[in-house]
Amino acid sequence: MRLNQNTLLLGKKVVLVPYTSEHVPRYHEWMKSEELQRLTASEPLTLEQEYAMQCSWQEDADKCTFIVLDAEKWQAQPGATEESCMVGDVNLFLTDLEDLTLGEIEVMIAEPSCRGKGLGTEAVLAMLSYGVTTLGLTKFEAKIGQGNEPSIRMFQKLHFEQVATSSVFQEVTLRLTVSESEH
């Protein structure tokens, strides 16, 4: 999404930066993991396909992707490359052309040593805020594999409620509606 190409979102634990070609090699290495493929319902891509995907996500008006950086590492090492501080990604997809206030949200903390430390929660909260204030979203959905209990629990702690289960795709859909008073 071109809208976020010059945006940096700074939190206490995470920094969100637009997904650029600089990030592709590390991202590609992560996605070779069978565990991450299973948790994200993803298929492995070649490096060339990954570069093409990054380019399309940067250009598509219905996809907003940020790379999640470890804020502590990023701030402690002046001059550190973003790639060396990468821990995951967070995405918003505008999937319903008839309801432009609805966004599907995804988060992945790919670095095993960074899981369970609140980085995913903070990345999701930052993305929800960005979705409301910049994209005008008021409803968010998360589609999560039924076996991904940590992710389901995280979204439930953020007040997402389960609204559907798909036995075909073996996933649950959780939803959050943000009211005017919560902006």
Provide an overview of this structure.
GO terms for molecular function: tubulin N-terminal-methionine acetyltransferase activity. It catalyses: N-terminal L-methionyl-[tubulin] + acetyl-CoA = N-terminal N(alpha)-acetyl-L-methionyl-[tubulin] + CoA + H(+). Residues 14-179 form the N-acetyltransferase domain. Helices cover 33% and strands 28% of the residues. The chain has an 8-stranded mixed β-sheet, with helices on both faces. Strand 4 (86-93) and strand 5 (102-109) form a beta hairpin. The chain has 7 helices and 8 strands, in the order E-E-H-H-H-E-H-H-E-E-H-E-H-E-E. The two termini are 23 Å apart. Helix 1 (24-30) crosses helix 3 (47-59). It has a single domain (2-182), classed as Gcn5-related N-acetyltransferase (GNAT) (Aminopeptidase, 3-Layer(aba) Sandwich). The protein has 183 residues and is α+β, with helices and mostly antiparallel strands. It is globular and about 45 Å long.
CATH class identity: Alpha Beta
Give the strand order, joined by hyphens, for the main sheet: 1-2-3-4-5-6-8-7
Count of extended strands: 8
The share of residues in extended strands comes to 25-35%
CATH architecture: 3-Layer(aba) Sandwich
Q: What low-confidence regions span 5 or more consecutive residues with pLDDT below 50?
A: none
Q: Cα distance, first to last residue? A: 23 Å
CATH superfamily: Gcn5-related N-acetyltransferase (GNAT)
* SSE order: EEHHHEHHEEHEHEE
- Average of per-residue pLDDT values: 92
Helical segment count:
7
Count of all domains: 1
Q: Strand count, sense and closure of the main sheet?
A: 8 strands, mixed
Could you tell me the radius of gyration in angstroms?
Answer: 16 Å
**CATH fold descriptor:** Aminopeptidase
Secondary-structure class: alpha+beta
Helical residues, percent: 25-40%
GO molecular function, one term: tubulin N-terminal-methionine acetyltransferase activity
Catalytic activity: N-terminal L-methionyl-[tubulin] + acetyl-CoA = N-terminal N(alpha)-acetyl-L-methionyl-[tubulin] + CoA + H(+)
Keywords: Acyltransferase, Transferase
Pfam family, one: Acetyltransf_3
